[in-house]
Write the structure tokens for this entry.
Amino acid sequence: MDDTLHPARGQIVVVRNDPGLMCSISGTDDGEDETVYMMTRAAGMSHLSKSNLRTDLNLIPFLSGGGTILGGSYQKDNWDPLPDPNLATRIMKRCIELCPSLVKKGQGIEGLDVIRHGVGLRPVRDGGPRVEKEKIEGVWVVHNYGHGGFGYQASYGCAEAAVKLVEEALREKAKARL
């Protein structure tokens, strides 16, 4: 049990609209636990053949066939798994205010083609992520958790550190057998 671990509730709206850019701004006038960001998702790449994929690789982040993620929130200790319609409205309004080209002129949030609403409870840990090894009842355990909303961004580095810890634990286990 780690009593420093808490949920950080994130809410998004996925739309078919393409803002033509990706951006993120921390904090909003709507509250410190709300933010605004837009990220296009790569998908719909079946038109890229294997022969031209290498030259088109730099275009992948800009393909919007997978929709655009509009966010969001970072609400610590909120366990609610259901989308909040009022928050969804604020998210969509903030994104349109930041990027009016997201919709046709004058449409407002009604101009968004909503695919779905989503909520995620991200595990965040007071003091930062836990990436360490520990011996519990004679068994080595490698911990790698508590990254909160930046788990994807930190995944490669933290996984690399965790692998090194596993290798250390295996060496220590081998030494103990001798």
